[in-house]
Design brief:
Blueprint lengths: L1 H33 L6 H24 L3 H22 L4 H41 L10 H40 L10 H18 L3 E8 L2 H8 L1 H18 L5 E6 L2 E7 L3 H16 L13 E7 L7 H17 L5 E5 L2 E3 L7
Parallel strand pairs: 4-5
Antiparallel strand pairs: 1-3, 1-4, 2-3, 5-6
Amino acid sequence: MGKTGGKGLSLARRLYTSRTLGLALGLLCVSVAMYPLDPAPWVWGVMLFNGLIWPHLAFQWARRATVPYHAEHRNLLIDAFFGGFWVAAMHFNPLPSATTISMMAMNNVAIGGLRFLLAGAAAQLLGVAVGLVVFAPAFIAFTTPRQLYACLPLLMLYPLALGWICFRQAYTLGLHKRELLALSRTDSLTGLLNHGAWKDQLELEFQRCKRLKQGVAIALIDIDHFKAINDTYGHVAGDIVLRQLSKMLKQNLRVADVAGRYGGDEFCVILPDLALFNAAQAMEALRERFSHLGYEQNPGLTVSLSIGLATLDASHSDATLWLNDADLALYEAKSTGRNRVICCANGKPRREVLDSV
């Protein structure tokens, strides 16, 4: 059954509410139109069954079906058939007939679009044909005031209920869409932006700062000897280290800063409106705090960070060149002993910017 079954059950629950209300109001509309015709007792019995029992039977039928989605489509066609049948039974009384047909059509188009609207219309025509065989063909051209008032609750309340159900469905779908979008942009282990989402933010920040001529820095962060951590302590310990770094980034960065997992054991941060010296101070503080973290399950484990920093300058024609400067600085940090912050300015890695930190 899988996804189709879940979708069908959700549809069945929504239609159970609208069908129960719609057919109860429809029973009032049809019974007042039928009363002057003095129908046989069995006709009243069918009316009561259709208006009061069928909604619950249809729901149970769909709920117990192998594919509830298909069962509900069948139930809707039965609804349409009954609607056509009562139109013929009422001798095409204008307002009750138009109300019945339009409410059925509204339901069908809301559920299945034009294709299902046409399928429902075919079912209604079949119901009309059966009704003409059962009842003597006739046409009542006048709707009495009492019949008009009996139609008003259905005309007013059912569209309101159907609109509310459609709104709730659209709201839920929108919420799911936003959740899926967030998941597609988030690294599942750390909860930070993933590589692609962070690169998107980098491009936006590059364009913004180029336009406004504001200072901004980016940092690439590498966990030193991460492979050795996995090999010595296991991948579970490695995952803990990655989560600890992401947690520290979330706790210590500013609201405006944008952190992401660049890939593997590399992380990345955008530091808007921050000069290189201040960005270096922030990253040095992060490096220092992280190096003193303890790990209860692995008391002997100590972890350090190598960090490369780069500011945006006029020579960067695109964000890739800016990121490349940060990568050069990170390479310099790793090749000169690790556990340090190296800054890149004017395309050249240097550490002297931290001398006063």
